[in-house]
Backbone:
């Protein structure tokens, strides 16, 4: 089968590999029909995730059809159409029992990281009963690819960790796919204002269409002043950091109001400054995390009912043979006005 593999720092290869086979009775083999590329895949290619070794198939998002089923799998049968969660979880260990699937003792984020991922014709999914979801009849499968990672990440680590409430003023720093996912899901909780902050006017336009009430272009270095102006100098109740660099985390600290929540979603590669000398007296909560995807069943219902329309995030489509082109487009997202790219195997 074809697979897109990590070839060492700054290198990837489209190669022929043997089709995966069942290793444990709790495994399922899925034939991938649609997958996508995540910012995390780009971090891996830049060499930021040293646990990924050369030859590893990348990708942790996708939908497909069950091809083979281990003898201990109860919930799935050959031919079922399934959504693959970016997080693998046994459902039985102490962390899984707490709903903390991200830290499953025999799983977590392993796909396209510690085991071969979804940017291939077939993938092996361990602990399939807890790590796959049935695709409801009549739901757009492209939309569901957005539910493997970015929608649960934006919701759980941004909106829920940030405790967005009715009437809140929310700032989202970073209008990439995960920031936009936070924007879409924040609206479940009826905040009064959602301010999107980004450097790119195109992304800010997209954010307005997705429900941002105000937008701030931060390229002039005046984002703090602009947010303070928009909030009667009070700052925001919730600041969601969806970039992962020191300046954006600093911006969140400067615009947060007393009693506010800073929810860090971004993947950081460098240490950041924490101004505790200013924040200690202001009753601020700072949260971080890796998505557990335990909101996926809820998100599936909201997509099925039409409340949530994640297909809006798809801007480009490729066949699997053109996956390297898809990487080029996604790597230069601003220039190509790209959000999420869909790679089809059908
Ligand atoms: Zn991802
Ligand atoms: Zn577990």
Residues:
């Amino acid at each position: 089968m074809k697979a897109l593999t990590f070839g060492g720092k700054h290198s990837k290869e489209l190669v022929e590999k043997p089709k995966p086979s069942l290793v444990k009775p709790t495994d399922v083999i899925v034939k991938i029909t649609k997958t996508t590329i995540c910012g995390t895949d780009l971090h891996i290619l830049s060499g930021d995730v040293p646990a990924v070794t050369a030859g590893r198939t990348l990708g942790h998002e996708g939908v497909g059809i069950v091809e083979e089923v281990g003898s201990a799998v109860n919930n799935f049968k050959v031919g079922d159409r399934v959504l693959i969660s970016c997080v693998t979880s046994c459902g039985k260990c102490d962390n899984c029992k707490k709903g903390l699937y991200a830290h499953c003792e025999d799983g977590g984020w392993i796909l396209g990281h510690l085991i071969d991922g979804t940017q291939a014709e077939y993938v092996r999914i361990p602990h399939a009963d807890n790590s796959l979801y049935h695709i409801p009849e009549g739901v757009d499968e492209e939309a569901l690819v957005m539910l493997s990672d970015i929608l649960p990440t934006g919701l759980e680590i941004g909106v829920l960790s940030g405790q967005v409430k009715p009437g809140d003023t929310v700032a989202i720093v970073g209008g990439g796919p995960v920031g936009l996912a936070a924007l879409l899901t924040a609206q479940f909780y009826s905040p009064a204002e959602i301010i999107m902050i980004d450097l790119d006017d195109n992304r800010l336009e997209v954010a307005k269409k997705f429900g941002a009430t105000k937008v701030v272009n931060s390229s002039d270095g005046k984002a703090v002043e602009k947010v303070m102006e928009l909030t009667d100098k009070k700052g925001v109740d919730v600041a969601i950091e969806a970039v992962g660099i020191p300046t954006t985390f600093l911006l969140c600290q400067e615009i947060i109001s007393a009693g506010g929540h800073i929810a860090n979603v971004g993947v950081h590669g460098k240490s950041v400054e924490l101004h505790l000398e200013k924040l200690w007296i202001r009753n601020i909560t700072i949260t971080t995390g890796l998505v557990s995807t335990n909101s996926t069943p809820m998100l599936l219902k909201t997509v099925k009912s039409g409340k949530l329309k994640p297909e809006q995030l798809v801007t480009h489509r490729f066949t699997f043979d053109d996956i390297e082109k898809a990487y080029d487009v996604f790597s230069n997202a601003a220039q190509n006005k790209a959000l999420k790219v869909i790679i089809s195997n059908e």
In short: The pocket of zinc ion (ligand 1) is lined by residues 38, 40, 60, 86, 149 (CB under 6 Å). The mean pLDDT is 97. DSSP finds 13 helices and 15 strands in the chain. Residues 2-149+292-344 form a domain with the Quinone Oxidoreductase; Chain A, domain 1 fold (CATH 3.90.180.10).
